[in-house]
Amino acid sequence: MSSFTTPLVVTPVSDTTRWWKLVEAFEYHVGGYTSKLVIHVPEGFSTNFASVPRVFWAIYPPWGKYGKAAVVHDYLYKNHNGFTRKEADDIFLEGMAVLKVSKFTRKTMHFYVRILGWWGWK
C-alpha cells in the first residue's frame, strides 16, 4: 500500500487562513512504501489544501482528513513533475484511501477535481 512517510508540518502564510507553507519537506510513496516513485514536496511549498468553495467548508473543509493528499495534489498541479493531470488526480484519490477517508468523500472529491481541475492545471 502507498504511504506518507513524513509528517506534514505547515505554518500559515501571513495572516491568511487560506494559504499554508510547508515548514519541512514532505514525501508520499506512490503505489507502495517500497515504491521508487516518491513525490517529494519541498520545504517552503505553499498550499491551500483542498480547493473547496467556502460554501461547502462545513461538509468538506480544505484541511480535512484528506489534507496530506491535497498537499501532494496541489504540488503536482503546480509543478506537473512528469505526471498527467489524470495521474495527479488519481494519486489524490489513492492518497485519500491511504488516509482512510470515506469512500463517498474520496469519490466525491475525485469527481470534482476531474471535472473542475482543468483550470488549476494550466
Explained architecture:
It contains 4 helices and 6 strands, in the order ββββββαααα. Helix 1 runs antiparallel to helix 2 and helix 2 packs antiparallel against helix 3. The model has no long low-confidence stretch (mean pLDDT 92). Helix content is 37%, strand content 15%. The protein starts with a strand and ends with a helix. The strands form 2 sheets. The chain has a 3-stranded antiparallel sheet, covered by helices on one side. A 3-stranded antiparallel sheet has the order 2-3-6, with helices on one face. The protein has one domain. It has 122 residues and is an alpha+beta fold.
Give me the side-by-side strand order of the main sheet. 1-4-5
Number of helices: 4
Strand content: 5-15%
What's the number of extended β-strand segments? 6
What is the gyration radius calculated from CA atoms? 13 Å
Q: Give the overall pLDDT as a whole number.
A: 92
Tally the structural domains.
1
Distance between the termini: 30 Å
Task: Provide the fold topology.
Elements: E1 3-4, E2 10-12, E3 20-22, E4 26-29, E5 38-41, E6 46-47, H1 67-79, H2 85-98, H3 103-116, H4 118-121
Antiparallel strand pairs: 1-4, 2-3, 3-6, 4-5
Identify the notable features of this structure and list them briefly.
4 helices, single chain, three-stranded antiparallel beta sheet, 6 strands, 122 residues, alpha+beta
Quick summary:
The protein has 4 helices and 6 strands; from the N terminus they run ββββββαααα.
